[in-house]
From TrEMBL:
Belongs to the glycosyl hydrolase 13 family. Its EC number is 3.2.1.1. Residues 2-340 form the Glycosyl hydrolase family 13 catalytic domain. It comes from the Eukaryota. Signal peptide: none annotated. Keywords: Calcium, Carbohydrate metabolism, Chloride, Glycosidase, Hydrolase, Metal-binding. This is Alpha-amylase. Residues 349-427 form the Alpha-amylase C-terminal domain.
């Protein structure tokens, strides 16, 4: 958003937290540049989250013209770029302090009705203000922004925030979001059980920052014996499904809001351990910081000659230059993000801590160990199936053998990165970050499995089993769905509603297993009654709050020891599977269309298909051409065996 310009203060970082309008001009660029960035990021699966400053406008005494040409006068409460005038700010009689500023955190009205460090406080109870804020947020949604952090939410009444958010649109499917997706929201609430405002008041408006977590984690990295008590509900810490956690953030790494007992990038060895433990631990929703270097706590970002924000320099080894830290690119941090995605939804088990090293498993999907001094040698219970696993932290330079009893010898001998992280299905990668995929090889490959069966001559009126495999080597944390049915141009009565569309095909999904490996598949297949083009169905199940994006597939393998083993998979790893009973009478002569949809990184539709004739013993010719995969349902056509084909 457009903000004050403070040359006399050497353009400090915090000038961005004094808005003058909701236009998207800033020291970083123009609205057009912002929109282009979001569009390009969405195209490669990178989501954008905006720091929304909606509690206040500029500080008193601020007068000038900002980057987009909007004038502002803090003393007059005049912001024509919105526009806001004096009537839109909190009446002075509602603030109990004598000077009008927040100065007593024990009094709720003082915290929420007074001016925070002299910043002009918006009166969020006004319908005009609520509409203005919602208009700003809806503009972000239209551009493809996935979520927001509400700055200074502690100083806003939760009912005002809830009302503003109720006016915000669903996220656009044109940017790859499943239909019905809502803006992700987390509220900045600094609560250390030391005032009238507490985190639980904001549970209905989104997630809540948990600043006590920073302190507890810092104490634990200094003294590993304290790590077992990281989550302290007795201190008032937010419940697991609402806690937004981090090692540090832009405020407390500088000694500003919520500061004290915080580890930062300035002590990199300890910082890597702190982030590793946070991302391995199941509590909360974790944020990884990416910073720039500073010597003065008010210092703004690396800049060009005109003080506009400088581009990030990426060195040949993948690290950053030009004054940027880029902690997210550090080896341990990038690898541990992948670990966290791989073990999502599992509980922490087999916890072990001897004061100098710590270890635990995440269900039957992953195991983590860390040694404060850089070395350890212990035989521990991993919770994993028997097999050989590689340590993703050292890019699989070392392996760990898990026995039939689930135990393994865990050895660490690395002072700088004293961490082991192993997980089911995790392998080495080429580096801390993955380059975006471009070109024809980025699409998924769809295959139908060889399944024995005898079929009737014509499509039956009832349902018959249909098994679909999609070959796709995904990254940790990604999920794959299919959407399909019949093209809207081929039938009348096709509408964007699975329940009533003539182009949707009735299905009943079948279980692939009950182990934790299939938790997502089993959660998302609940209420999935149609193969359709429209994403999540009304009433369809969700997994840990994540909505389905179509008919779900499960990752499978033909390796008997794999947690994703399926006997129908004849080819190898990375064959995603869906098993349904399909109403063949709703197909086109036994044929139907489908296309894969990827979520969580590189999200979106696979590329259009140029499909040739089917191969294999079944043969067959599609009744029409399409840019989607055209599949002939083997149980809806006359054949005795279907061989693998890849359209």
């Amino acid at each position: 958003m457009e903000h004050v310009i403070l040359p006399n203060d050497n353009y400090p970082w915090w000038q961005r937290y004094q808005p003058v309008s909701y236009q998207l001009y800033s020291r970083s660029g123009t609205p057009e540049q912002f929109a282009d960035m979001v569009r390009r990021c969405n195209a490669v699966g990178v989501r954008t989250y905006v720091d929304a400053v909606i509690n206040h406008m500029t500080g008193l005494g601020r007068v000038g013209v900002s980057y987009g040409g909007s004038s502002y006068n803090g003393d007059a409460h005049d912001f024509p770029g919105v526009p806001y005038t004096a009537e839109h700010f909190t009446p002075k009689n509602l603030c109990p302090s004598s000077d009008g500023n927040v100065n007593n955190y024990a009094v709720e009205e003082n915290v929420r009705n007074c001016y925070l460090v002299g910043l002009t406080d918006l009166y969020g109870a006004l319908d005009y203000v609520r509409n203005a804020v919602a208009g700003y947020l809806n503009n972000l949604v239209d551009l493809g922004v996935a979520g927001i952090r509400i700055d200074a939410a502690k100083h806003m009444w939760p009912a005002d925030i809830a009302n503003m958010l109720s006016r915000v649109k669903d996220l656009p499917t044109s940017h790859g979001f499943p239909a019905g997706s809502k803006l992700f929201v987390y509220n900045e609430v600094i609560d250390r059980n030391d005032g009238a405002v507490t985190v639980d008041e904001y549970y209905d408006t989104g997630m809540v920052t948990e600043f006590r977590y920073c302190m507890k984690l810092a104490w634990g990295i200094a003294d590993y014996g304290q790590l077992g008590g990281l989550v302290d509900y007795g201190w008032g810490m937010a419940r697991d499904d609402r806690a937004f956690v981090f090692v540090d953030n832009h405020d407390n790494q500088r000694g500003h809001g919520g500061a004290g007992d915080v580890i930062t990038h300035k002590t990199p060895r300890e910082y890597k351990q702190a982030v590793a433990y946070m991302t391995a631990h199941p509590y909360g929703f974790a944020q990884v910081m990416s910073s720039y270097y500073f010597t003065n706590t008010d210092e703004g970002p690396p800049h060009n000659a005109d003080w506009s924000t400088a581009d990030v320099v990426i060195n040949a080894d993948g690290s950053c230059g030009g004054g940027w830290v880029c902690e997210h690119r550090w080896n341990v941090i990038a690898k541990m993000v992948r670990f966290r995605n791989a073990v999502a939804g599992t509980a922490m088990e087999n916890y072990w801590n001897n004061g100098g090293a710590v270890a635990f498993s995440r269900g039957n999907k992953g195991f983590f160990a860390m040694a404060k001094g850089g070395s350890m040698d212990q035989t521990l219970s991993t919770g994993l199936p028997a097999g050989t696993y590689c340590n993703i932290i050292d890019s699989c330079a070392t392996n760990i053998n898990v026995g039939s009893d689930g135990k393994a010898r865990i050895q660490i001998n690395n002072y700088e990165e004293p961490i082991v992280a192993i997980c089911v299905g995790c392998t080495a990668d080429s580096g801390p970050t993955s380059a975006p995929c471009t070109g024809s090889n980025c699409g998924v490959t769809t295959a139908s499995p060889p399944v024995d069966g005898t079929c009737t001559q014509a499509p039956p009126s009832g349902t018959s089993r249909t098994v679909i495999f999609v070959q796709k080597a995904t990254s940790v944390g990604q999920d794959l769905f299919i959407r399909g049915g019949i093209d809207h141009t081929k039938r009348p009565g096709c509408v964007d509603n699975a329940g009533t569309s003539a182009c949707a095909i009735s299905i009943t999904t079948n279980s692939l297993g009950t182990s934790a490996h299939y938790d997502k598949y089993n959660a998302w297949r609940v209420g999935d009654t149609k193969l359709d083009w429209y994403g999540v169905q009304s009433g369809q199940g969700s997994y840990n709050g994540q909505a389905s994006a179509g008919s779900p597939l499960a990752w499978t393998s033909n390796t008997a020891s794999s947690s994703g083993f399926q006997s129908l998979n004849k080819w190898g790893d990375h064959y995603w599977m869906l098993d349904v009973n399909m109403d063949c009478s709703e197909t086109e002569q036994g044929w139907f269309e489908l296309k894969a949809f990827l979520t969580n990184s590189g999200s979106g539709w696979e590329n259009d298909i140029s499909q040739g004739a089917c191969t294999g013993t079944a043969g067959g010719t599609a009744p029409y051409t399409t840019k989607n995969h055209m599949v002939d349902n083997l149980y809806c056509r006359p054949l005795s065996r279907r061989s693998l084909h890849r359209p």
